[in-house]
């Protein structure tokens, strides 16, 4: 997409290569619960090992806010990576300093080191030039393969690229190719599905997609602000009062642009926010005053499935309801199944939608599941991602 150098444009043989990956994987009690992001980085790591590079891997995990947090160490990730690579990975307890420098000095070609969570240093998120320099001095070359963190201008994603030759890895390239092509030269009909909790988080992406898509499907918590904007009562459903006018303006803009805007016609409502709540299915014009909408209804889901079936390209970001609870999972499941069976090209914009297709066991039916939640959203909004901008031009 962008004219940036990749690993293939430079010689990495025998070089010390600092590879920023996004190993920010979900963990529960020290156990990795989803290793997608580790697997996604393997092609880059394998290539570098095969080329005889000295591979120094760096990542963040969680948000430790500049302090050492025992439960945010990358130790378990190192163990899993070694298994997946079927080769030893030396996991260090630091990401800079003497111990790291000595370990790097002792590396043989093809060796792998995994540094400790870079966010244990406050300078990482502050993009502290001194920290970036410390990272840079460990290596001859910088490879950024952390698409999921490309929207962050941090010392290991942006600052370091100012000091040593900086290129993209294979995952970064793939993400940019798929999302970039979809957005710049989409096959039509092009449909975007936007769900999730809040309008606030999706303003930019809705605005940008209205310029590009043929169909825009709205679901999830944010759809209730749109339903309200159409003049219906939404009971105790999620409402962003200050975004009603914005929702109205989106409805108008869609009309003006000839974009077909699809909004819920029915909803699954509950008497409380609980997995054991009482539920009923109602039209959006009949939501009872003290109930809340927690999923799109079956008519809506069937409408959405029909649009997905007839589309050539579909991008999905954000669940249709509270899919974590069985009673409110049906809308998201119907959309996931429609994505799995359409002949169109399907792209999942990371985060909760990726978790949803995993949960409904259709992940392998998707054409592309982005490893970036926030990053893919920002890319779809048309924003420049600092981790990419910082790389060397071709
Ligand atoms: N009708 C609803 N009422 C309340 N919460 C809802 C509703 N529909 C969906 N949600 C919740 O919204 C959450 C997901 O929204 P959120 O905006 O955080 O994620 P997302 O859009 O997938 O973003 P990302 O991809 O960055 O994770 C889910 O946890 C889901 O339970
Ligand atoms: O999980 C993500 O979206 C990335 O790893 C970035 O994490 P962050 O939102 O904590 O910067």
Automatic annotation (TrEMBL):
Monomer. This is Phosphoglycerate kinase. Pfam families: PGK. Its EC number is 2.7.2.3. It comes from Lysinibacillus xylanilyticus. The gene is pgk. Keywords: ATP-binding, Cytoplasm, Glycolysis, Kinase, Nucleotide-binding, Phosphoprotein, Transferase. PANTHER family: PHOSPHOGLYCERATE KINASE, PHOSPHOGLYCERATE KINASE 1, CHLOROPLASTIC-RELATED. Pathway: Carbohydrate degradation; glycolysis; pyruvate from D-glyceraldehyde 3-phosphate: step 2/5. Its main location: cytoplasm.
